[in-house]
């Protein structure tokens, strides 16, 4: 049951091959036996109540395609009455008093929430090793990282612990773990999904999305998550199409752009071979390929890490032990209380970024760092604009290597370098996707698809057509 897609589970539930309660119990027992550490909280009681509600709906003939599908929710989305930690000691005892808009929408269609997934603290990281709740393991090889920050979500889908999962992507956190765990991940255009009730990291980048087994499943879930929300002033008043209706358009005549900056020496040769093999497959399906250039994307890492750190230093200031978050027991006076609460509550990487951001925003440095970075951000967006006048979609790697060893990255900058191909997409606010296209030894490789603004339908169509021709997305790790 746990290798089935949403579409397959829907059929199984409808034909009464299994009940939703049975399905949910099956997943919960897998989660309880798992050594992946993919979950921070397992909501077993709630899940079984939701499963019974779903079974009742199915019995009455009122079910939709998502009724009773068990999923895993990244622990960055507020869930009413359920712990919402963002992977931090700061929020270890925080029970959200309200639902994020995404949580509310997922509840409305009678999904079954199995639990909240592990993640890098406040979504800062690319390996899931920055979590207060310890690292997550990659289901393909337990000595490797699953990617981050949505590492728990990716591992839960790849490891057969949930049918699909939610994620957020500020600089690659859906696409990179999806790539390293061999699943399908979609980060929509900035503003497509409401950020209300998502614990903020860097507000001008943060965007929710989906992590699934197939592109078709991603379309089904995006249909529910997308849309304007008056509670989020940056959510777009853009019509939501039915993402499942345009999946069968032929790729004949599609123009693919390959940015030459994405195929330089930092890309592992074997990963590159897999990417080029996938591109050939697209050519055999009628697409044409041309080289393009994103000259300013080479500045994406410093640009992103300056702006994201500035935004996080502001967003996380509310976590001071007074207004929100962990409170130190040891303090003698008010200043001590702030200092100790923040020193003890935040992990190393989060503190590093708060300090970088505070420094870059301070008088005298603001122009040199923050303002300059915003200007480069504009140049990066313009590069994409020019390229999309000539091509329908951009393709390239998601990550320069396959999943690396747990504990192998010793300094923060080498971790930042792992984000080289994903960050420019967030700087421009564009939609991006990762789909499995091969393996290097036992580890999956993902192909990145980057579309123009609001072209989620097109990306899903391209990915779906590829998945009709190939079976990389159907591979599962041994223990599944
Ligand atoms: N690795 C990037 C960071 O640490 C992106 C994380 C994310 O997308 N949340 O900022």
TrEMBL record:
Residues 22-460 form the Amidase domain. Keywords: ATP-binding, Ligase, Nucleotide-binding, Protein biosynthesis, Transferase. InterPro entries: Amidase, Amidase_CS, Amidase_dom, AS_sf, GatA. GO terms for biological process: translation. One of its GO terms (molecular function) is glutaminyl-tRNA synthase (glutamine-hydrolyzing) activity. Its EC number is 6.3.5.7. The active site is at 74 (charge relay system), 149 (charge relay system), 173 (acyl-ester intermediate). Gene3D superfamilies: Amidase signature (AS) domain (3.90.1300.10). It catalyses: L-glutamyl-tRNA(Gln) + L-glutamine + ATP + H2O = L-glutaminyl-tRNA(Gln) + L-glutamate + ADP + phosphate + H(+). PROSITE patterns: AMIDASES (PS00571). GO terms for cellular component: glutamyl-tRNA(Gln) amidotransferase complex. It comes from the Bacteria. SUPFAM superfamilies: Amidase signature (AS) enzymes (SSF75304). NCBIfam families: gatA. Allows the formation of correctly charged Gln-tRNA(Gln) through the transamidation of misacylated Glu-tRNA(Gln) in organisms which lack glutaminyl-tRNA synthetase. The reaction takes place in the presence of glutamine and ATP through an activated gamma-phospho-Glu-tRNA(Gln). Belongs to the amidase family. GatA subfamily. Heterotrimer of A, B and C subunits. This is Glutamyl-tRNA(Gln) amidotransferase subunit A.
């Amino acid at each position: 049951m746990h290798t089935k897609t949403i579409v397959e589970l829907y059929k199984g539930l409808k034909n009464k091959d299994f009940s939703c309660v049975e399905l949910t119990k099956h997943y919960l027992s897998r989660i309880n036996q798992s050594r992946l550490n993919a979950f921070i909280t397992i909501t077993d009681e709630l899940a079984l109540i939701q499963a019974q509600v779903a079974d009742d709906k199915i019995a009455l003939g009122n079910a939709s395609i998502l009724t009773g599908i068990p999923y895993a929710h990244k622990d960055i989305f507020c869930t009413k009455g359920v712990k919402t930690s963002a992977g931090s000691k700061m929020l270890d005892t925080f029970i959200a008093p309200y639902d994020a808009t995404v949580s509310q929408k997922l509840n409305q269609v009678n999904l079954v929430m199995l639990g909240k997934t592990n993640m890098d603290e406040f979504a800062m990281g690319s390996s899931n090793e920055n979590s207060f709740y310890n690292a997550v393991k990659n289901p393909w090889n337990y000595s490797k990282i699953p990617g981050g920050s949505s590492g728990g979500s990716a591992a839960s889908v790849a490891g057969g612990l949930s049918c699909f999962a939610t994620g957020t992507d500020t600089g690659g956190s859906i696409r990179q773990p999806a790539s390293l765990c061999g699943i399908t991940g979609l980060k929509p255009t900035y503003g497509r999904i409401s950020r209300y009730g998502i614990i903020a990291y860097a507000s001008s980048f943060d965007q929710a999305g989906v992590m699934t087994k197939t592109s078709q499943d991603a379309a089904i879930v995006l249909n529910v998550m997308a849309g304007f929300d008056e509670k989020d002033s940056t959510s777009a008043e853009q019509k939501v199409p039915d993402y499942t209706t345009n999946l069968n358009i032929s790729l004949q005549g599609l123009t693919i752009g390959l940015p030459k900056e994405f195929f330089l020496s930092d890309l592992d040769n074997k990963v590159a071979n897999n990417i080029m093999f996938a591109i050939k497959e697209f050519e055999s399906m009628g697409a044409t390929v041309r080289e393009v250039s994103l000259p300013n994307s080479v500045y994406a890492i410093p640009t992103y890490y300056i702006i994201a750190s500035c935004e996080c230093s502001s967003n996380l200031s509310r976590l001071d032990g007074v207004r929100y978050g962990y409170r130190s027991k040891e303090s003698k006076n008010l200043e001590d209380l702030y200092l100790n609460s923040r020193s003890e509550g935040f992990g190393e990487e989060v503190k590093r970024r708060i300090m970088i951001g505070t420094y870059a925003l301070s008088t005298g440095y603001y122009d040199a760092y923050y303002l300059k970075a915003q200007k480069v951000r504009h140049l990066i967006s313009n590069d994409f604009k020019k390229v999309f006048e000539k091509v329908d979609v951009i393709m390239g790697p998601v990550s320069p290597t396959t999943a690396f060893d747990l504990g192998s990255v010793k300094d923060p900058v080498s971790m930042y370098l792992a984000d080289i191909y994903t960050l420019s997409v967030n700087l421009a606010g564009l939609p991006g996707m990762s789909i499995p296209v091969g393996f290097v030894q036992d580890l999956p490789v993902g192909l990145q698809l980057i579309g123009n603004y609001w072209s989620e339908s097109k990306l899903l169509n391209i990915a779906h057509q590829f998945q009709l021709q190939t079976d990389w997305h159907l591979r599962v790790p041994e223990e599944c």
